[in-house]
Predict the structure.
Amino acid sequence: MGTTFIIAKREFRSNFDSTLAYVVICLGLILLGFVFFEFGGGFWQQDRASLVQIFAQAPRGLSFLIIPVVTMRLLAEEKRSGTLEMLITLPVKDHEVILGKFLGAWGLVLLLVASTLLYPLLMFWKPWDLGPLDMGPVYSGYLGLVLYSAAAVSIGLLISALAESQTVAFFITFVVLFALHMVGSVADKMPTPWLREAISFISFDTRLVPFAKGMINTRDIVYFASIAVGCLMAAFRALERRKWA
Amino acid sequence: MSTDVMIEANGLTKRYGAFRALDKVSFEVHRGEVVGFLGPNGAGKSTTMRILTCFISATGGTARVHGYDVFDDPLEVRKKIGYLPQRAPLYGEMSVWEYLSFVADMRGLETSTFKKRMKNIVEVCGLATSLGKDIRDLSHGYRQRVGLAQALVHDPPILILDEPTSDLDPNEKAEVIKYIQEIGKERTILLSTHNLSEVEQACARAIIVSKGRIVADGPLEEIRAKSGRVRYVVQVHEKRVFEGGPAKKAPSAEEVQAALEKLPGVTSVVELPTDDRAHSFQLAGAQDGDIRAEIFQLIVSKGWLLLEMRREAQKLEDVFKALTKNDERRDRGRPIVEDDEDEAEAAAEDEDEDEDESDEDESDEDESDEDEDEDESDEDDKKKKG
């Protein structure tokens, strides 16, 4: 097993050593349930066998609550407590540390995303077979969630690599992700068309909508993937910076 | 390079902005040596160790560990090293066993090898009863043991320990030193500390750094002899005199001091604090001389009652203070970065002067030294953080 996966495994498991992770996961699922069935009329009023609510609301829940909490510790806390020195002086390359941390945190978020599978399974299969579900948008929706979470986690990791403490990392990550979600709704109010386009280009929400509808655009995939790769590379540089600072 | 050299630092320099943390530090550590790396806080001990373990890079100079360059082959270097950073930072949420097996996994150890080695490590480090405990619940002493254990997991030929005994209580300190002695039988160890008695117990050789420069490097005996002084402690009874002797009444402190000062070869006499039974003095003399006979004769001829007399070669602590203290004092109020050549020359000149100055400084300040040292270390801590 490569060192990357050993780090990822340790990172993933360390989430379950504190009650925080359990609280956050439970809270997230409860909130999702509430939003799914009650928010804006909810599932029953829509009168359609669709999971659009999940794909529309889950990314926000992840961004505003779960991802900042999961990623804040990754590097900021290790830097503060000095364990980073212990970790890096093991025979491991810097990029393996970054990648391992990323995979560990992403793994936890994917676990949460996977737990939302309960909705389609319970409602459209057993025990309550509410009718045939159009599977296309479900697959693409989940692909969107997976890609989105990779991008969001890597943003959190980068901020954690730059921040001095995990509290700071939490707030900055929260603000950045919040902005990336909300910026889309401002787009329409922009006076010039190029500004409108630019803003909707970087907005998470506008990128996620096609996935929820069953459309998979290469542009959207590239968008999320390049955010993830770019942030990971920047985080790698931030970690390397300790050598020269 | 001979294969015998395990750690080789060559002109290591590290700058943080304008602050020069290390200034052309060069030394060698040979196979099987246990070397004490000494210096006040902020002298550059940790910086040197971080460079050797490839955690940070030097601004200038080279270093090789086990023949591998720290810049070119960091992974090979790290494989050969067991490293315990300052204050043993460990993952608190993991249990001792989990943590050690994590380190073993990272080092690519087979599970069977790991288990076999753990038997020995658990015994050496005294961890048998705490393997299942979470690290955050352990006392600092035990954490330090876990830190040592993780450094030993892969049976490295070289150990680098950064202040392994700081923040420990005296019993724990003694134990950690005992482990180090135990471990050091077949390994090369570079051990940083500012506690000198530990160095005297565990190491045969010491490197003293101050303000990023090496001020002394050699066997402890040699370093001790460096300042070339020896001291005597003399205690004379305050109330009684030798019966049948020439003196009729007990001497006053001034009387004794004046008489002792007249002895040949005595450079200073300082009164030491005692109870009201005795006058106690500390005399400083030349390293090669021995004036015990003269002291005895003086006291007999005066008819005083001698309670104690002993001769001590200078303690490592005194040498340490002499070597590092003036350096720090001199450093205040001068620009931090100067031209290299100038500084080297100035340092060489100053060194000689300091030795002499420190003779007087030392004895005058003995009592206030404690407080001053603390202040200085506080200051240095702040500098470090800043």
Summary: The first strand of chain B starts at residue 5 and ends at 16. The longest helix of chain B spans residues 340-365.
